[in-house]
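Handout, page 2. Input:
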Amino acid sequence: MGLRYWIFWFSIVWAQQTLVNLPSIEITHPKRVFVLHESQIRFWHPEPHWVTTHFLTYGLSHKVELAVTLHDIGIPRQAYRSLAIGYKCTEDIFARELPELELKWALGQMLIVSLSGRRPGLWTYVLWSMRIPHLRTRLSAGINAGPPALFGETGHKYPLDLSTIDFIGSIEQPIGEHVNIILEWFSGRHHEFASLIPGLIVNWKDWTFVLGCRIPNDAEEGISLVTEVGHTF
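Output:
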């Protein structure tokens, strides 16, 4: 009874659209709304900035959530401002045979509407995930394919007007009931998400707080601080 309750509680507090930038394997709880504000801040050179992203998700069922995201609103004005509308669905794998591994996969798609005059596009990602028994460490890995309207011009051209196809991955380590250490990575170079982000997530009741550091794959860009505040209604 106690273990089942703990797993159920853990699923709810992680029911958010993303870890930091990388999509989470979890789903917003049915009939609940999750909202989150993210700020990426750099007060130093090169190029001091304050860039915000705003997330809203609604749990349609235990397997599907709807999502709306406003990307890259900040100072100075960002080149790839966009509105994203879409969904994410997840499915357990071998839930009866291997319950301790919590094997899952997720598929997400977002229609990207550029707010800076670029063509609309479709962002698609697929994730597979498992949890290491006893340690409770969750490992996730997948593939990300995005358009110039969100990821920017990378110098590459792929079918379906995609500008990037990359590996994505994350490690999540719970520390007690309310704190999680995370490490997430978008591979690639010269696009808006290409970075390594170590961070700390604190979940308290219906609130989520994130503090992280964005380390771009291209060292010339410079690091940024990342903060997030979210609430589930």
